[in-house]
């Protein structure tokens, strides 16, 4: 898969109905010529019927395809996943996103995906997606979450062992964990582990290949966020 091209498309296709074929024109026959019949002439020739015009077949259009991330905006997690337990949605500028895309046609197997998530201490919870909490187990501030990259972005534990998905999206709000940098490193390590064991590639929030420069850019965003928070706290104390 060439990840420099647009993000892979869903396999489900929506076909447009074909335009009804036009009715063929009726065959027309010329009338017999009027007037006397010339000598030594047989039956007056009858004009050959004009052949029916072949019905024009419309050129089939390529089937429409839904983008894997049709509902995902740059810098934002899927809508269903972004609504975490927090009563207020985070500022999109403060959300970091990493997407893992399968390099195999069948996608990520749900059974393998679930095993890796449990090994990395992610728990199924709010919004029917997976979360990793700062205090371990399933309590404390959320470090990061993982949603299905295909709408509606959720999982079903009853059927996860038999499912496949072309991709998953990891996302975190810098406003949630106490140690933002540690939360990001945990999210990155989990995404890299999943991609390595399940044959996937990592993309950034703009659906481009996640490169070392992008990872450092994310870290710089965290530093800027924390510096801004410290400055704001200092102003409020003054």
Automatic annotation (TrEMBL):
Essential cell division protein that stabilizes the FtsZ protofilaments by cross-linking them and that serves as a cytoplasmic membrane anchor for the Z ring. Also required for the recruitment to the septal ring of downstream cell division proteins. It comes from Marinobacterium aestuariivivens. The gene is zipA. Residues 1-67 are annotated as: Disordered. It is a single-pass type I membrane protein. The keyword Transferase does not apply. Residues 44-55 have a biased composition (Low complexity). This is Cell division protein ZipA. Interacts with FtsZ via their C-terminal domains. It is found in: Cell inner membrane. Its main location: membrane. GO terms for biological process: cell division. Residues 92-222 form the ZipA C-terminal FtsZ-binding domain. SUPFAM superfamilies: Cell-division protein ZipA, C-terminal domain. InterPro entries: Cell_div_ZipA, ZipA_FtsZ-bd_C, ZipA_FtsZ-bd_C_sf. The keyword Transmembrane helix applies. Keywords: Cell cycle, Cell division, Cell inner membrane, Cell membrane, Membrane, Transmembrane, Transmembrane helix. It comes from the Bacteria. Belongs to the ZipA family.
